Amino acid sequence: MGRIGDTIKSFKIRHALSQAITLGMIVASALMIWKGLMCVTGCESPIVVVLTGSMEPGIKKGDILFLTMNDDPIRAGEIVVFNVDGRSIPIVHRVVEVHERNNSRDFDILTKGDNNSVDDRAGGLYSPGQHWLNRQHIIGRAVGFLPYVGYVTIIMTEKPIVKFVLIGALGLLHFITN
Q: Considering 9, 28, 111, 122, which has the largest number of Cβ atoms within 10 A of its Cβ?
């Protein structure tokens, strides 16, 4: 009976190690895909979730945007994602005014949400004393979107209990199937 017990114990250890290695490969693959997207698109964040309705009716809360960033001049009418000093969450709005300086790499832009009545400067969205956005504020330009797919992220952020229930259900499923 000792050899059978040792064999079963060895099998359980191998099975656990196999699952840990598989999980590590999944996480590593996801990170490699993300880093690859960063290289291909030129964006630090090639995919973002829209968190508000400021761009409705075209882009809605819960949509996922795909971004790119290149050296082409930014033009009025483009949708950009940008950071503002003092805010931790990027903003998705449309460029309404562009002022190019010495060359097309230097510019000042003004943005506005399609669903907002005033531009972002008048609406107080920019940092105090800031009148324009510059290249360093821009994260990327929207090149496509998937409607409503980002709601999963929004729900898990707004209601953390959903995240824990989902993780618990996945853990339970794991133990039931093995």
A: 111
